[in-house]
Please model this.
Amino acid sequence: VAHDFNNLLTVILGNAEACRAEMALNRQAREHLDLILLAGQKGADLTQRLLSFARQQQLSPRSFDLNGRVREFVKLVSRTVEENIEIGVSLSDGLEPVRADPGELDTALLNLVVNARHAMTQGGKITIETGRAAFDENTASQEPGVMPGHYATVAVSDTGIGMSEDVVRRAFEPFFTTKPQGKGSGLGLSMVFGFAKQSGGHAEIKSAVGRGTTVRLYLPFASTRDKFEADTSEAEAAAPRGGRILVVEDNDFVRQTVTFQLERLGYTVTGAPTAAAALDILRQDAGLDLVLSDMVMPGGLSGADLLREVTEHYPGIKVVLMSGYAGAELRDQIRSIGDAPLLQKPVSSKVLARAIEHVLSA
Model:
């Protein structure tokens, strides 16, 4: 299911990116496309989180712009809350990049917004704010797992019914809930707490009955060694360098979309629906520069099999692989055969361009 869903998202995101980049758009049309891209990426993040949860994998932290992530989150979630609930945003100026799993941050914020909605049955206001905080030696020693130092914060506050002191003390416990049976799992806040702790940070709740609730997450700043690239970066893709690429993908729509993305970058592209068809093309034309192949295909030969054949018989041709299910076992399988990057579908034009440029220039 994840593989098929990510193929659909590849087509949606790839063509939306192309429209945004190539068409002369008015402001409203550009905003519509931005929402398509944002929602498509949220779908990709959701699929990856479901896969990660099923495999019990650890988080995938990276450096990103917290303020930018919050802006995009609010833009999407504000369309899902009731009309009697207002969403406010307060972002700290000049906030440095943080290091965490951005998809899991979205999940944590969504859990907090849902809880805030449930606490305001008659309407109210949800405020999402970012800021800075520090734990000194004494404060950090009182919070298990918290290291002294400076942190970025993101907080979700509501004007709802609030919690008693007893409820606040237990709120982060797994399966603890004040909702009626069948209305809540009691896992939302515990997952938020776990995310903050796994990220090397902390989470806290401040609440009072009748005065609302604030849940604040503390996230570590990215180190200077981390490569910073904000999700909303408008940096251009790699400059076209030319070259010949064979795209091997059984899904016609995905193959067509990826072909279009590569041709926009200046490459000459040939397509093949199976690994067997790709090998037939290679036997007739070994002058290709790179093979870009899906991992899971019909016909008895996978992307890994194709990598093995190319590595053995066409050592001058580079290989990049893609998959809608880029699990650890696939990566281990690839490493046992040769050196080829594995891209997680859906692949943006920017990521695809960088990966191919990196491999061709290696």
